[in-house]
Design brief:
The protein is of the alpha+beta class and 60 residues long. It contains 1 helix and 3 strands, in the order E-E-H-E.
Length: 60
């Protein structure tokens, strides 16, 4: 597992969090995993609606 910092904008507010993601994921699979984590984060924090994924970076 590798840790990634994931950032997104929701209602003009930027959110970011750190999440462990499988290190074997690349390209579209990695982006899909990050988007899935954003959806989980939004549900846990009662955020509803659309978001914009603004960044993801591996933390070393």
């Amino acid at each position: 597992m590798e840790y990634h910092r994931i950032s997104f904008i929701y209602n003009d507010t930027e959110y970011s969090f750190t999440k462990a993601i499988n290190e074997n994921l690349t390209g579209y699979a990695l982006i899909s995993a990050c988007r899935a984590e954003v959806v989980i984060y939004m549900k846990e924090h009662d955020l509803k609606g659309r978001y914009i994924l603004t960044g993801m970076a591996k933390i070393s």
